[in-house]
Amino acid sequence: MYTRDDRFVRWQLYLGFVSLFVGLLMGLFQAVDRANIDLYSSVGLQSYWQGLTLHGVLNVLVFTFAFNAGFLTYVTSRALGRPMAVNALTQAQFWLMLVGVLMAGFAILSNSATVLFTFYPPLKADPIFYLGLVFVVVSTWCTLANIALSVRAWRADNPGQKVPLQAFMSLVTYIMWVLCSVGVAVEVLVLILPWTLGITEKIDPELSRTFFWLSGHAIVYFWLLPVYISWYTMLPKQAGGKLHSDPLARLVFLLFLLLSIPVGLHHQYTDPGVPVIFKYIQAILTFAVFFPSVITAFSVIAALENAGRNRGGKGILGWVFKLPWGDPSVAAQLVGGLAFLSGGISGLVNASYNVNQIVHNTSFVPGHFHLTVGTAVTLSIMGIMYWLLPSLTGRKLWGLRFAQANVWLWAVGVAIMSRGMSQAGIAGEPRRFYASAATYHLPEWDFPNLMQAVGGTLMFLGGLCFFIVLVGTLFFSRERDESVRMPNVDVIIPAEKGAAIFTDRIGTWVWFALALILLSYGPFLITYIANPAFVARGLRAW
Amino acid sequence: MPIERLEKYFLWAAGAVLLVFFLTVSVSAFAWGMQLPNPDGRVDPENLTAPFDKPELREIAPGQYEAVLTAQTWAFLPNKLDIPVGSTVTFKITSKDIIHGFEIPGKRANVMIIPGQVSTVTVKFDKPGEFLYICHEYCGIAHHVMFGKITVA
Description:
The complex is a heterodimer. By secondary structure, chain A is mainly α. Chain A is built from 20 helices and two strands. In chain A, strands 1-2 form a two-stranded parallel ribbon. Chain B has two domains: about 1-35; about 55-150, Cupredoxins -  blue copper proteins (Immunoglobulin-like, Sandwich), CATH 2.60.40. Chain B is built from one helix and ten strands; from the N terminus they run αββββββββββ. In chain B, strands 1, 2, 3, 5 and 8 form a five-stranded mixed β-sheet that branches. Chain B has a three-stranded mixed β-sheet with strand order 4-10-9, with no helix packed on it. The longest helix of chain B is centred in the N-terminal third of the chain and has 26 residues, at about 5-30. Chains A and B meet through α6, α9, α10, α11 and α14 of A and α1, β6 and β7 of B.
């Protein structure tokens, strides 16, 4: 029943993991740069900055996007118990992404797009780079269409029933992303492409940044929410527990749909072109978007406690030690969750309006997001792959010890590296820092940089163990195992107990979200666009 | 929607903590003047008008200085400032080409420099010593050599 979709799901995942491998390798290069070792010339890269562009683009724009497309297509079809509505869309999402990645990758490797993953104009890359990104984004629109059509078909066949929780979450995740992707689509299609193609002469850098960050914070929830689906509905099942409330889990996803987007200005707290009143309004909303994650912290930990107690755990914390830590799929996600707790705290620092001035664009920022997207998301995805790969290929997982080493090397590595980055950042070390060649230096950065080198190297070794398991399972696993299915948690309070506004009416929430975006961005954009600054010609500054 | 009793308490407590944090930040910004950068005019990066046609440090009142800086790939102009102890310096900065950044480690001075916009930030230098001002946004191949030095004496 699923074979036709699964073929493309697998290819999409492989595309993501090939990208992740190169991305992690570039991470290693950056880490050892902190110890004054230059590996770039040894592989024919022109500069640290070209490697850093690969690191950012491949890890957060390709790996996450490819995984989400494959994983949520898989989850939707299994949750609904039917193949995807339009197989052509499953195919299109893969081919579009592949073509886009090849175009952008070609531009970066030929050193004509050394603009980092934020590609702020007036840095001016080859048009093929931006066109490649357009293909990647259009691919995600196909995924949304396919999930939405599949859910609609399921509803037509099951009138009056609640959409299964995992399909509901997949749908809300993609609606949230596609809604926010309008920002970067406007930036690239209206501002950047006409400019790099020579149709317009000058660009407004502040306006471009604003459209970029309109998508740029919600994108982090697009990275995160597929992992939340696993933490809510799969991890507790793997550990042997129940989720307390289905409707509350749905509400969390709807709150992300509502609040993820109208907070992008908190990335522009120090921008000279944005009046403080608009920054302040979005600071309030940024604090509000902590709330669904606060709910998640309680709900997921409660479900895990339920699991630990079912396994005989006693006392306040005894259940923690009864969780199946030896199962790498579970352990990876437990470590991911722990990383997310600390990442949430450093995120609160970044979000805190004027406190942001201490850490803005310093190493503190990568110190934060290597805990969140770099570990909560990436390590959890590695854990998910430890059951998803057997389920998709029918092969038994190969190399259990490597899988366990993956988890613990990564955990220790990120703890050391992020600690170093955070400390260096508070001492003013800039983000995006070519440490070994910089002509300025503060002694306070020395020890934290060593921590970054050691921690980053350990993370890479952990990543390498993951790839050994991946390749081993695909090529050396001789045992068949057809028994692995998608975990699906039992709930104590079913969807039927929640009001329809929390469990059914996604469309209403889309209208709420649009209204909030208009209220929070509208006044600034209207006043700014009335008096824009199209002043920059652009520069190939590398 | 039925929410478990303990979870409700937890959410109220977390909400209260977030509220206290936010109120603290708000008071420090709006009552105590630790405010974020605000727009301070526009300038054409290809045709810099006053004061950016002549970037320099100038005294505008006793103990009050204005440091007019321009940023370009890959240097600040000027890249050395000598400041008397106890002075208050208002930095006014703009870019001649692409996006740059400006931060002084150890001070609450952190602002983006965006072509077309004027970035303003005010810093008080109480004690003698040396400070760096660093470009903290990627600005091309030699981004890592772009900085300046402040000597407070």
